[in-house]
Design goal:
The longest helix is centred in the middle third of the chain and has 14 residues, at about 115-130. Helix 5 packs parallel to helix 6 (about 145-150) and helix 5 runs parallel beside helix 10. About 35% of the residues lie in helices and about 20% in strands. Strand 6 (about 110), helix 5 (about 115-130) and strand 7 (about 135) form a beta-alpha-beta unit. It has helices spanning about 10-20, 25-30, 35-45, 75-80, 115-130, 145-150, 155-160, 165-175, 215-220, 235-250; strands at about 5, 30-35, 50-55, 70, 90-95, 110, 135, 160-165, 180-185, 190, 200-205, 220-225. The chain starts with a strand and ends with a helix.
């Protein structure tokens, strides 16, 4: 049975605002929020743990799992809580999935301190498309930030997001005999086209700082994406896409 909320001060509206703006609130409550009719359908299709769906009157209800709370709101209330400049009329709350265990695999991508949610989401979307395992290290954007979820185009619903810390990842890769490669702008770096990326765990560094020194220090190989000499660097999501494509090409 549908409910109706017309006040911007309703406790549910206030809760959604907190979940949209605070990573700690998401972790504390075990919930996250995102928006859009297409993403809602993805969440339904892939069993994303839907809890509550907020809809404006002009949006049709998809076939929702049993027990999902459905709330209708006026457009002005939707506009007051939606993070989008032009809300699509659907905002929904999902349970955070159980933490996915890290398991080292050759040909995997390791994200080090990538803080832009759009970049992280785009990388997760590309990794999902190319079937490349990804792990997010400390300092990365929250994969359940609404910007990350939107940029992933539902990849966070389809593929478990793995998060870990560098020490654990390094120890596991060493134990499994998987060499660690890092993207770096250095004289020692080898063209990615001449390296066997499919046998390595590849680290992509942050947008501004690159791979942190403690990882560079222990890396088995430094790698570079060939580019025009007058170009200093690539966007992290673009660099990751090129590396992932090269991993797949080498198989």
């Amino acid at each position: 049975m549908e409910e109706r909320i017309s006040s911007r001060k309703n406790p549910l509206i206030q809760q959604i605002r907190k979940l949209l703006s605070s990573r700690s609130a998401r972790q504390r409550e075990g919930l996250f929020v995102t928006d859009g009719t297409k993403l809602l359908q993805e969440a339904v299709s892939f069993g994303a743990g839907l809890r509550t769906v907020l809809l404006t009157d002009d949006v049709q209800i998809p076939d929702l799992p049993e027990g999902v709370r459905v709330v209708r709101v006026p457009e002005d209330v939707m506009g007051s809580v939606s993070p989008m400049e032009a809300p699509q009329g659907a905002l929904f709350v999902c349970a955070l999935p159980e933490k996915a265990a890290f398991s080292p695999k050759p040909g995997m991508l390791i994200l080090d301190g990538i803080q832009d949610p759009g970049n992280v989401g785009t990388i997760l979307r590309t990794a999902d498309a190319l079937d490349v395992p990804v792990v997010l290290l400390e300092g990365c954007a929250d994969p359940y930030n609404w910007k990350t979820v939107r940029a992933s185009m539902g990849a966070v619903f389809r593929t478990p997001v793995v998060m870990s810390d560098w020490q654990s990842v390094q120890t596991a890769c060493n134990a499994a005999g998987i060499p660690i490669g890092v993207t770096a702008l250095s004289d020692r770096a080898v063209d990615i086209r001449s390296a066997k990326l499919q046998n390595m765990a590849l680290v992509i560094g942050s947008e501004g700082q690159g791979v942190r020194p403690e990882i560079l220090k222990v890396a088995d190989q430094e790698l570079i994406i060939p580019m025009n000499p007058h170009c200093e660097s690539l966007n992290a999501a673009i660099a990751a896409a090129i590396v992932m494509w090269q991993i797949r090409m080498g198989e």
